[in-house]
Automatic annotation (TrEMBL):
PANTHER family (alphabetical): STEROL UPTAKE CONTROL PROTEIN 2
Organism this protein belongs to: Zalerion maritima
A matching Pfam family: Fungal_trans_2
SMART domains hit by this protein: GAL4
Segments of skewed composition (Basic residues): 45-55
Region (Disordered), start-end ranges: 1-55
Key word Nucleotidyltransferase present: no
Keywords, in A-Z order: Nucleus
InterPro entries with a match to the protein in the record: Fun_TF, Sterol_Uptake_Regulator, Zn2-C6_fun-type_DNA-bd_sf, Zn2Cys6_DnaBD
Name used for this protein in its record: Sterol regulatory element-binding protein ECM22-like protein 2
Gene Ontology MF terms: DNA-binding transcription activator activity, RNA polymerase II-specific; zinc ion binding
Low complexity bias: start-end ranges: 29-39
Gene3D superfamilies the UniProt entry points to: Zn(2)-C6 fungal-type DNA-binding domain
Length: 548
């Protein structure tokens, strides 16, 4: 930015405290709010008087020409076919002028990324913001948005969803704006910034109240905002874990907040989710539940499968077994792939897979449900790149041990063994979890942010399998290189052969008569990604392919 740009708000320029627990590197960039410098003295020339524009776009200012301030793009930028970017006004405004935010985030690429917010729409009275709100909004678009980019990689689609789509929705829906500002306040508090606690609490309370009211009175216009808010509330509600007088076993309430995401997704028609621009935020790694069983510790399997008929828990053997299979996916990931973004995603999304029956058992504090939960909490200590889950596992494992007492102590020996081990000692913690002191992590223990399996995460159901719509379509990630996905014609090797050595996304499967080839309950499906080769023979059912 030019030297004329002002510096960030003072409370944002303090260095993060070493004890804050934040795992990203947060460095404030220059503020996008510009001020007009005194004009440089020049020789006098007679010229026609005109009103000097102080709110023109950045391109016109750089070229030192008058800007007509047209929206969304001025006349000059339109003619030159360049992106028109307006500076953020110094005071609050009810107009719909663009907000330009220069981002310096932990998941950005090496070059600075400029995000432009346009067409924010008519702002309801409830979304008017003051100076503090604008500071928080600025911090969200430069730093806090990355709190939900779990894998930590530059991804244009995810960044746009977090930095553009959610902010635009927040200006239209007050409950989402409160959640966004509350999450940002919480983030700054963890970095020891001077944020009034009363204000932060007010954001949180109003966010939950507004969200609850919107859920009770849903309509098509609020679905996208509800989706975004359900995600932000998971991070926002984590503050209770860090409060000195926080509720013991708050993890049980937090599970319900996470389950709320599934409720909102179920309320939302797939078409709305696809059109919202947020679908990438709800992708999860697939799970093969048949494979995960062999990775469940024997003592946990025995605990679930040896429940006597006289025990009230016997009616829930299948529920416990299902929960253990999801837990097994974490053991499998750690043992076979080690540390990385896929493990982080599996840990973060774990609660979204669990059956409601298990959640009810855990909230009833049934011992076996709490034992399973304690073993899950060990894995949270490996999610070191997400600040809002820091130290949750250590606290809640101890609380579960206190709740169950000595009778179940033998089932909690491994979780308790991880409590005194710092999260920095990742290999030592993993060896305790896997109960294998000889375990050597793949890739030498490195965290691999470029795991190729990230290309395979998609919209999956609660059985861990990709969602197939009634039309036969599969919701899959799109390459961030393209704005549109072009579907080629129905292919076979004679009429329209696939090009050699090119990758394709399989977007839809149909039979010869055009009907969906399979449903979510089918066991056999073609692979989502197909490598074409010279002797490629496509068999029925015919896939529709989308080129990467």
């Amino acid at each position: 930015m030019s030297s004329q740009d002002s510096t960030p708000p003072s409370f944002l320029t303090q260095s993060p405290s070493p004890s804050s627990g934040a795992s990203f590197t947060f460095q404030a960039s220059p503020s996008p709010i510009s001020s007009q410098s005194p004009p440089v003295e020049k020789p006098y020339h007679t010229k026609r008087p005109h009103k000097k524009s102080r709110t023109g776009c950045r391109n016109c200012k750089a070229r030192k020409v008058k800007c007509d301030e047209g929206q969304p793009s001025c006349h000059s930028c339109t003619l030159r076919k360049v992106t028109c970017v307006y500076p953020t006004p110094n005071t609050n405004s009810d107009s719909d002028k663009s907000l330009a935010v220069r981002s310096r985030s932990p998941i950005r690429s090496d070059s600075e990324n400029l995000i432009v917010f346009r067409d924010l729409g008519q702002r309801p009275v409830g979304t008017q913001v003051d100076e503090m709100d604008m500071k928080l909004l600025w911090w969200y678009t430069t730093e806090s948005y990355a709190s939900f980019a779990i894998d930590g990689r530059p991804n244009a689609l995810i960044e746009t969803a977090l930095k553009v789509q959610i902010v635009q929705l927040a200006f239209q829906h007050p409950f989402l704006m409160k959640a966004l500002l509350g999450m940002t306040s919480l983030h700054l508090q963890t970095l020891d910034k001077d944020i009034p606690s009363v204000r932060a609490l007010s954001y949180r309370a109003k966010a939950f109240e507004g969200f609850r009211n919107a859920v009770e009175n849903p309509n098509r216009e609020t679905y996208s905002a509800l989706l975004a808010c359900s995600l932000l509330l998971c991070g926002l509600s984590s503050q209770t874990f860090r409060e000195p007088d926080g509720k013991p076993l708050y993890i049980l309430d937090w599970m319900v907040v996470w389950r709320g995401i599934g409720i909102i997704v179920d309320m939302t028609k797939p078409k709305i989710l696809l059109e919202s621009g947020l679908k990438q935020l709800f992708f999860r790694p697939k799970i093969n539940l048949d494979e995960t069983v062999s990775y469940i510790p024997n003592r946990l399997l025995f605990m679930a499968q040896s429940i006597p008929f006289t025990d009230p828990d016997h009616a829930f053997v299948d529920t416990y077994y299902t929960a253990l299979k999801y837990l097994g996916s974490l053991y499998k990931e750690l043992q076979t792939s080690g540390f990385g973004p896929i493990l982080d995603l599996r840990v973060i999304t774990f609660f979204t897979f669990l059956p409601q029956a298990y959640v009810d058992l855990a909230r009833a504090k049934r011992p076996r449900a709490l034992v399973i939960l304690a073993h899950y909490l060990m894995f949270i200590g490996h999610v070191v790149h997400v600040w809002w889950v820091q130290n949750i596992g250590t606290r809640e494992i101890t609380n579960i041990s206190s709740e169950l007492g000595s009778e179940w102590a033998f089932m909690l020996e491994t979780p308790l063994a991880t409590v005194p081990v710092p999260t920095e000692n990742q290999i030592e913690r993993a060896r305790i979890i896997l109960e294998n002191q000889e375990w050597v992590p793949p890739k030498g223990g490195r965290y691999d942010p470029d795991d190729k399996r990230l290309q395979e995460i998609c919209w999956v159901n609660d059985r861990g399998r990709e969602v197939v719509l009634e039309t036969g379509e599969v919701i899959i990630p799109r390459s961030p290189t393209f704005d549109e996905v072009h579907q080629v014609e129905e292919s076979n090797s004679e009429q329209n052969p696939l090009n050699e050595n090119e990758s394709y996304y399989c977007e839809r499967y149909v039979t010869e008569d055009g009907e969906p080839a399979f449903s979510n309950d089918d066991d056999e499906r073609p692979a989502l990604i197909v490598e074409a080769s010279e002797d490629d023979k496509i068999t029925r059912p015919i896939p529709f392919y989308t080129r990467i």
